[in-house]
């Protein structure tokens, strides 16, 4: 991932907050089919971003736990 990609990727918290807004807009209705599809697509992208953040955090946690198991002190 290039530096530009990282700069454009929102934080987990920002992506989650925007995803909540998208879901609220979809639930409220009153949008055209085209607008609803655009919101849905944005929601899918935001959900993927959130999942990527969570997967990265899980990988880091697993690495730390595995490193702790390899420690002779334990």
Structure characteristics:
rod-shaped; 74 residues; mainly alpha
In short:
The chain has 3 helices and no strands. With 74 residues, it is mainly alpha-helical.
Helix/strand structural class: mainly alpha
* Series of secondary-structure elements, N-terminal to C-terminal: HHH
Strand fraction band?
A: under 5%
**Unreliable parts:** none
The count of helical stretches stands at 3
Radius of gyration from CA coordinates: 18 Å
How does this structure look, described?
With about 70 residues, the protein is mostly helical. About 80% of the residues lie in helices and about 0% in strands. It has three helices and no strands. Helix 2 runs antiparallel to helix 3 (about 35-70).
List the helices and strands and how they pair.
Elements: H1 3-8, H2 12-28, H3 33-70
Helix pairs in contact: 2-3
């Amino acid at each position: 991932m290039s530096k530009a990609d990282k700069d454009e990727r929102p934080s987990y918290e920002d992506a989650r907050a925007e995803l909540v807004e998208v879901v609220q807009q979809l639930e409220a209705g009153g949008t055209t089919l085209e607008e609803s599809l655009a919101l849905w697509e944005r929601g899918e992208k935001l959900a993927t971003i959130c999942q990527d953040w969570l997967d990265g955090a899980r990988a880091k946690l697993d690495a730390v736990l595995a490193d702790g198991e390899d420690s002779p002190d334990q």
